[in-house]
Predict the structure.
Amino acid sequence: GLHRERRSLYESVADAFLPPGERDVARRALPSIIRLRAADRRAGMRLVWAHAVSGDYPVFIARGLLASGFFEPRDRRRFLVTDREVVRLHGDVAEALEDVGRSTLPPGEAEKRLGRAEEVLRDMASAGVERGDLLVALGGGVAGDLAGFCAAVYQRGIAWVGAPTTLVAQVDSAYGGKTGVDLPEGKNYAGAYHQPAAVLVDPTMLETLPERERAAGYAEVLKTALIAGGDLWARVRRGGVPDDDVVLGCLRTKLAVVAQDERDEGGRQVLNLGHTVAHALETATGYARLRHGEAVGIGLLCALRLSGRESVRAEVAELLASADLPMRVEGVDADAVVELIGRDKKRRGGPVQFVLLESPGAVTPGHELRDADVRAAVSEVVGP
């Protein structure tokens, strides 16, 4: 109908996005909409309302947001978790967000471990953090996953706010409430679902990202655009640096999927497109050699090979190359990767289920594949 025809026009001028079909959503979102209206309109702030069974929350997006003094929820004491690199680049923002204390992590996936989580929890206890206080995660996926996990378990759970500073975090990992740490046996093996109280997205943070970090995030943009199809895929396949509208489109796609399936019991598994192989590659390389996004890019190539979608695979390979992302990883044994993928069998009590793509916008989970086919796809992207 007319609404469908005009939808992209409406969306281009909207400054608040609420999920369709949810009862009472406008009433629940109203305080955040009022906050949005009260904010400086010149900043172009936008609001996306995130819905999940365990709780709704606002996502605020604006350039310069984190340095502006805007914060939600207000009037709560804050403890900050961040990393050294973020503090070096954005010390003023870290200072503004910190209240009762902070934990500053060394950067890198290797820090996402139980030992580091214990240090953060003890820092929180030493600072006198109480049940009514907030934990703020300023950083990329590692800071967000670790801080969210600490918030979930500290005194049996306190509220937390995400302030993502990397492309991976702004388009994907900051939303959906999956928190956790890695074990030597596998990625995210210890964790909890714990939705944030709010997420504050400032795209200007991406301007200070090292090139490799930005490129790694681009792989998650590609993954999300393949899941979404439509306008988002059309924009992303043109190449170039993802702009604010692409970030907005990605986070809306992620939130729409999570709203349908918060706990990964079915539909949410589409978000794992490329991730079955990616997680195995990260584990096989000791979380030290590959950025998460780099592993996702390689995992996408495997998933598209297994999907039998050669034209899309060729296009994705070209886009990965244009972003200087690796398309294979040396010094890794294909059998070791396949064995790590197989550990999912124990975790899920059945064969490994792959997420495959029919076409952009048509992605489905739950495909059981022959080990020989998986090994053949993995062999193309790893080398001795």
Remarks:
- Residues 210-384 form a domain with the Dehydroquinate synthase-like, alpha domain fold (CATH 1.20.1090.10).
